[in-house]
Amino acid sequence: MSRPGFVLEVDAKTPPLMTMSGAQLRLERLGVGTRVVYGPDADRSTDPVGLIDAALQAPLGADPLAAQLSPATRLTLVLLDSDAPLPRPYFDPRRTLAERVLEQAARAGVDDVEIVVASGLRQRWSGAQVTRVLGDRVATSFLPDDLISSHDVTAETLVTIGDIDGHPVSVNARVADSDLLVVIGLRADHTHSCPLAEGITDLATVKRLGSAEGEPEFGRQVCELIAGQIPVFSLVAVLGQPLLSHSLRFASRREWEWGLADRLAFAGARQTVAALPRQGAQLLHGTPRADYAVIDVIGGAHTAVMENARQVWRAANGVEVPGPADVLVTPVWGAAIDESDPIGNPLAAARHALVTQAGSNLGTPFVREGGVLIAQHPLRHRFSNRRHSAAADFFATVLPQTTDPDEIAARFEPAAIDDEWYLDLYRKRFAPHPLRVFQDWYAIARATAPLADVIWVGADRRSAAVLGHRAASTAADALEIASGSVGFSPSIAMLRGVGLVVGDVK
């Protein structure tokens, strides 16, 4: 049985703490009294077939899946893409989920089956990615006949299924024409968002879901509309903490538990990264794989499944934290940002630090209002020309003029989301939709608003300035800069680990 997460209060005998910055691994010694938030132990994965079969046979608020299938059923599997974990798993549990559903469909004599990836504004899936996630067996059966597709939010074939207060909601044509949707996803965070609504609807709906103002109630209504208009059976695997590959296993362990092998592995990793050019460091540490234990598999009615899975993940990955701190320190590792961008560009790093890490709480933030967030990342001004062209232009031309989300939405967003070059990259070259970078910035701005300052350790100063943040050479320098807002004896909390935890801040 793995141990739950806990908070360690640093004292004079506490060893230096390992932090992660881009592809770099380093040791930091923070002040006595710093509260370090450790997640639960990571477990090795086990065969989830028993859990899957139980979820299919005894679902929440729905008939068993087998009872909903017949030879005449027009069946569509919808793969949720927005909640896939990083670091990337060795074996994606969605493969087993999909295979068990397809086996039941075959036994029922269903022969009209397609798979739709609910990618929304994210990159559309290549054949290689389909094979990596679903395996050769499914890929070779469906890809040659074009029976696997990624949703296109700009497609002309989208079908309107209803409206919400006068706002028409359109969805993927195959989804709208299905007798049954089986939604397959992973739960690896605590968010209340509806990845189904974000993944298969039209551009106008997705735009409103992630608007600068933020409309969580609208998202709930869209999700309920889809489930009300189309029969939906959801199947979600709840994941634990990532257990890294052998060469990086020390990062999944607490510092005082490191044995000789762990210390040697850490020293070797640091020396290797220091000796390699930046591209070599990316290859070494930028895209590691991890093992994830499947804690539970939940099937049934969509709304009930999503809420139940969220509660299970919270129970398995929650850590009780004694009150908000004046300063929150968070590492930003490339492996936790984007599998197509090993280190992470400045915008991706800011979103991970402010929205994903600092925002993973039960309502009370890790850091108090008026506090300071210190993040560790190089913030190098490097963007992929093919995958992140829209983000590069946003960073170079929009943010230097204004960081105000309302002004950005009014002045720059309309032209960007209609730009033919960006749209061509989205449709044909596996780049995100240009709207995604705007919505990421709106989320970053909302997360930044309560803070007095955001300081990046070891970051490019110009990149930090473009974000409206500050840069420091060391953690000690960052704390000195923060003293202007929180004084010289602030309470400090540090998030430690390669995975995501949810903080129950008392």
Descriptive labels:
506 residues; alpha/beta; 9-stranded mixed sheet; 7-stranded mixed sheet; globular
Topology of this structure?
Layout: E1 6-9, E2 17-22, E3 24-28, E4 35-38, H1 49-57, E5 74-80, E6 88-89, H2 93-107, E7 112-118, H3 127-142, E8 148-150, E9 159-164, E10 167-171, H4 173-176, E11 180-187, H5 195-200, H6 203-209, H7 216-229, E12 232-244, H8 260-275, H9 278-286, E13 289-300, H10 302-317, E14 318-321, E15 325-333, H11 346-357, E16 367-376, H12 389-398, H13 405-411, H14 413-417, H15 420-428, H16 434-448, E17 453-457, H17 461-466, E18 470-472, H18 475-486, E19 492-496, E20 502-505
Parallel strand pairs: 2-15, 4-19, 5-7, 5-11, 6-13, 7-8, 11-12, 14-20, 15-16, 15-19, 16-17, 17-18
Antiparallel strand pairs: 1-4, 2-3, 9-10, 12-13
Organism: Tessaracoccus palaemonis
InterPro entries: LarA-like_N
Protein name: Nickel-dependent lactate racemase
